[in-house]
Amino acid sequence: GAVVSQHPSWVICKSGTSVKIECRSLDFQATTMFWYRQFPKQSLMLMATSNEGSKATYEQGVEKDKFLINHASLTLSTLTVTSAHPEDSSFYICSADGSRNADTQYFGPGTRLTVL
Amino acid sequence: DAKTTQPPSMDCAEGRAANLPCNHSTISGNEYVYWYRQIHSQGPQYIIHGLKNNETNEMASLIITEDRKSSTLILPHATLRDTAVYYCIVRSGTYKYIFGTGTRLKVLA
Questions:
Q1: Would an 8 Å CB–CB cutoff place A43 in contact with chain B?
Q2: How far from chain centre, in Å, is Cα A80?
Q3: Chain B, 69-88: which have a CB under 8 Å from a chain A CB?
Q4: 3-state secondary structure chain B
Q5: Per residue in A36-83, pLDDT tens?
Q6: Contact, B95 vs A103, CB < 8 A?
Q7: Which of A17, A65, B78, B92 is deepest in the core (most CB within 10 A)?
Q8: Pairing of strands B9-13, B103-108
């Protein structure tokens, strides 16, 4: 139980295009999901908190117009990287607040984005 | 948000117990300690969490000191597949996780 999936697992795109990453909780409902990014050999950095049916809360320094987050249902949150540039290349990971183990976050497998 | 401090790296012989320490001296009374691990290029995997009492599950044991300022994750019989980066996290009241740098555990054959 408490499985979180992400799609795609990897994506390569051209500079200036937009990329959408999906995060799904497969066997539980998640009112809150989180988005992180991770650069090589570094730790995870929280980007934003996504609440179902409301606007996401972004961490300081994260551009909300560049990283669009939508949490339209209790099992799906999406992150859209708009007008991607090479410096946006990173490992993007989502997590969802579990139901059975309240307040424990369960992480997706991550999406590797490469912007050429 | 309480910060955590962990040693950057540790080695452990296969079959032996791996004891991973974490310092969280600024932890508040209602903040939980969580442990996750991340194997290369994967999302973090939940291991265990606790508030005050020691906890054990099928993966590991968590020992929290009485003053709650530090904790130790114990993998009782480490295997090569336990090689990973281990993160100790104090969950704040806002439910956010703030990841530190973690401990890179290498299990040696």
A1: yes
A2: 9
A3: 87
A4: CCCCECCCEEEEECCCCEEEEEECCCCCCCCEEEEEEECCCCCCEEEEEECCCCEECCCCEEEECCCCCEEEEEECCCCHHHCEEEEEEEECCCCCCCCCCCEEEEEEC
A5: 999 998 999 999 999 888 889 999 999 999 999 998 888 999 999 999
A6: yes
A7: B78
A8: parallel
- Name the nearest CA neighbour of B42 among A75, A27, A5, A116: A5
Work out the widest C-alpha separation in chain A, in whole angstroms.
41
Q: How far is B14 from chain A (nearest CA, A)?
A: 24
Structure token pair of residue B85: 């980066």
Q: How far is A74 from chain B (nearest CA, A)?
A: 17
Instruction: State the Cα–Cα distance between residues A82 and A68, nearest whole angstrom.
Output: 7
Q: Kindly tell me the burial class for residue B58, based on how many C-beta atoms sit within 10 Å of its own C-beta (0-12, 13-18, 19 or more).
A: exposed
Whole-number Å distance between alpha carbons of B57 and A7: 31
**Radius of gyration of chain A from its Cα atoms, rounded to whole angstroms:** 13
Contacts of A107 in chain B (CB under 8 A): 36, 43-46
